[in-house]
Specification:
The protein has 430 residues and is α+β, with helices and mostly antiparallel strands. The chain contains 13 helices and 18 strands.
Length: 430
């Protein structure tokens, strides 16, 4: 890992929050992600499953976390199983966590080698009545591959048919949505790294530059600041490409007069940032471009003010729709007749702003967090309105990551990233 070691008090707190909501005499198990192959002996880089990382801080393959608050033996109330390291592994792959390092990382005293899991697990299941499974029920999940977690669930259901089972996800959905102070610091670090990348490219972008060259500049800055790289696949689209919401080819030339939309974010210690900025390729907005840009920025500012404790996510998006409608009327992109005759299920503003405005942020770019209950302090949301005019090859989106406060407006984790049109022009023309 490139990032600095995280204080294990964070993971101790997270486990306490989780176990406080477990049923009596229940066990919860969390597995690391698989390492995925690409063919022959090649593999993709390892990315840890966010659930086990959130609860233990362990960022290593073939690790298992077991939580059993009612275990008869106190040493079995929290157990971490890690892959046994040796000199051969150390030479070929690099040293893995030993037991002392696993304890330092997680705050868990009971650390076993992975080879001991089956025996210990069987013994503890004789004491337990319920087993919590870690299933992915995120509203945007789209899973086709069978995970290590999936295989574990099948095995347990086969071997222990008399046990009850429960879901970890509702508990994690509840507790992961509200961030601890340490998590906010890690998110701020990710956002600060993103800022450095953005400032770097402001002096780099000009007509003739390729989209992938801009991607490379971001990656350079991210890596040199202890990030693993992009928190998600970057979108760097110029001209018409800026109107394609999830454009990821990033293979076209940026042309004079184009707007350049960049939806990018650095990760840090598995925590994500999520920024969008749109800039003129030649360093100067046209009057029309500036008018649309400022409209989007006003929507972002007004939408941000609505993110306060008690706000309901679905109702929030309706209010943002009203704000956007007003701006589109002022721009002349829609008229009063369009609004009067609109389909309630697809309002007039959706012709130019067809996606949502906010989502939870954290360990995942679209993080866990309750959407049907009122928002709470220390939840982190994106704010990302946009206006897309394909017939003019113009797409403009602006996005910040903000923290809901107990009182007042949210705290903007991207407050130092340039966003005003005049500031963008000044920095691009220094």
């Amino acid at each position: 890992m490139k990032y600095h070691l995280i204080d294990n008090q964070l993971f101790i707190k997270n486990r306490k929050k989780f176990t406080a909501q477990m049923k009596p005499k229940s066990i919860a198990v969390f597995n690391s992600n698989d390492i995925f192959t690409t063919g022959a002996d090649s593999t993709l880089p390892f990315y840890q499953h966010r659930d086990i990382f959130y609860l233990s801080g362990v960022d290593q393959e073939e690790s298992i976390l077991l939580l059993f608050p009612d275990a008869m033996d106190k040493k079995h109330r929290e157990i971490l199983f890690v892959k046994e390291t040796n000199d051969h592994i150390a030479i070929w792959e690099g040293a893995k966590l030993n037991k002392a390092q696993a304890t330092k990382t997680s705050g868990i005293e009971s650390v076993y080698w992975l080879s001991e899991f089956d025996k210990v697990f069987f013994d503890l299941m004789t004491e337990a009545e319920t087993i919590y499974f870690s299933t992915n029920e995120h509203y945007r999940q789209a899973i086709e591959l069978e995970s290590r977690e999936d295989r574990f669930i099948k095995t347990v259901k086969d071997k222990f048919p008399a046990h009850n089972w429960a879901k970890s996800f509702p508990i994690l959905q509840n507790i992961r949505g509200v961030k601890e102070a340490q998590e906010l610091e890690l998110l701020q670090t990710a956002c600060t790294i993103t800022e450095k990348g953005f400032r770097r490219i402001l002096g780099f972008v000009k007509p003739g530059v390729m989209e992938y060259e801009i991607e490379a500049e971001f990656m350079h800055e991210f890596l040199r600041n202890r990030s693993k790289g992009f928190a998600y696949t970057p979108i760097i689209g110029s001209g018409y490409n800026a109107c394609v919401l999830h454009y990821i080819e990033n293979n076209q030339q940026c042309k004079d007069g184009d707007m350049l939309l960049m939806d990018v974010g650095a990760e840090y210690a598995n925590y994500s940032s999520d920024m969008t900025r749109t800039i003129p390729v030649n360093g100067r907005f046209t009057d029309k471009q500036k008018a649309v840009y400022n409209a989007v920025n006003r929507v972002k500012d007004e939408a941000t003010k609505l993110l306060v404790p008690g706000t309901i996510w679905a109702e929030y998006h309706k209010e943002v729709g009203k704000i956007m409608t007003s701006e589109l009327l002022d721009l002349g992109l829609i008229d009063k007749a369009d609004v009067q005759n609109e389909d309630p299920n697809w309002p007039a503003y959706k012709k130019y702003f067809m996606h949502g405005t906010s989502h939870h942020m954290g360990l995942d770019t679209h993080d866990y967090g309750e959407l049907k209950k009122p928002m709470k302090a220390n939840m982190v949301f994106t704010v990302e309105p946009g206006i897309y005019i394909p017939e003019e090859n113009m797409g403009i989106r602006l996005e910040d990551d903000v923290v809901i406060q107990e009182k007042g407006d949210p705290f903007n984790l991207m407050r130092n990233i340039p966003i005003l049109a005049d500031e963008i022009e000044d920095l691009m023309n220094q």
